[in-house]
Amino acid sequence: MFAKITLVFLSIFLVACNDKDDSSQQDCSMTPCTQNFVTITVSVKDVSGKAIVLDSYEVIDTQTGENLATDFNGEEYQYSKEQGVYPILSDANRLEYQNKTTTLTFKGYISNEEVVTEAYEVGADCCHVSLINGNTEIVLE
């Protein structure tokens, strides 16, 4: 009987003395990652399925107020925009969002008029960014 009681107290003691700090960043130095480069995109179409080309758009990090769309204004994204596909977050931003989540707001403009606003919950692990919640197929009427 004494052994069982000792075992219970020892178990409780070991669990209580766990010095692991769950709030710290995960060490990613030994994490194997694929060589894929992930970009989260949204598509904007009309009700007939035709791509909507926005004059401009913003991707605002609601916590910092930073516009992430400035990262996607190069020539490599021009074809996507012509197809109505707009990047909102990529692995280039992974370190900023690693092991946490945030809300991004996508705003699209035509003739300086806001025609779309959508919210997205995103995050990143040691390797890639990910979409947690949000509508990636936007249909404008």
Automatic annotation (TrEMBL):
Protein's name in the database: Lipoprotein
Species of provenance: Maribacter hydrothermalis
